[in-house]
Design brief:
With 306 residues, this protein is of the alpha+beta class. It contains five helices and eight strands. The protein has two domains: 222 residues, f41 fragment of flagellin, N-terminal domain (Up-down Bundle), CATH 1.20.1330.10; 31 residues. The strands form four sheets. The protein has a two-stranded antiparallel ribbon with strand order 1-2. The protein has a two-stranded parallel sheet with strand order 3-6. A hairpin with a 2-residue loop joins strand 1 and strand 2. It is rod-shaped. The mean pLDDT is 85.
Length: 306
Amino acid sequence: MSSLLTNTSSMVALQTLRSINDSLDQTNSRVSTGLKVNSASDSAAYWSIATTTRSDNGALGAVSDALGLGAATVDVVSTGMNEIRNVLQEVKQLLVTALEPGVDKTKIQTEITARLEDISNKSKTSVINEESWLTVDSSDADYNGTKSVVGSFTRVGGAVSVDTIDIDLATVSLYDANGNIGIMDKDRTAGGTTIAVADIDISALTNAAADLTTIEEYISVVDEALTDMTTASTELGTVSTRIESQRSFVKALMDANDRAIGTLVDADMEEESTRLKALQTQQQLAVQSLSIANSSSQNILSLFRN
């Protein structure tokens, strides 16, 4: 039965065209943005996971930056420590020279003093981001004997935690204004005498046996300081290795998160391109179908022309 008031065929054709247009709009959006999940309405679960993971990646990026700063700090301290160890080795050589008969110990002391001042200056200038690890003041109200470098960011069961790599300044500091922990101003005992490296002075010594013994004790104390500095350098090297390992891991983790996000929300461009062409064809057919359905009413007029 044909009706002028109700065109069922047109209604069905129009509904089909609307459905195709909706699918075409969705596919066009995926092709233009490259995302199959662009908002929570596309897939609430996937969108939520992807958004949280992107947030975590932002935090991991901050961790990576912090690790970079930590690596730079450790590198500056290590460089200063290596330079200072070489100068302290020169001090030891000068003390050995002072054991030779007839050597002017006053002149040697002048060179030793210059080397010790050089060590002090290098220690004070081995600073980055206002962080000084080689010259400290443990009596300062803001002093913290442990320096921490951000090491990782984790999220477990919704709980967020940040782990750190800790460095004990007692193992690396050369000078302490409070006189407690510095390798260079640390009191050491040699031959029953308490000596600090920074206070070595042989200018008044002679070639007497007792004075030569004192110089030998100075050499022993410098040797201990060199051993302590070697240990400190080893500690810094270990920390540097840990930081670099953690930086590599954080970057790998960020890449893995990016891949996970892509798996959840990225559109398959080959698939979407094929679907787009198919929908465009379906749209054209639906338009033609609607046109045919609309023209069916015109056919009724022919019944009244005769």
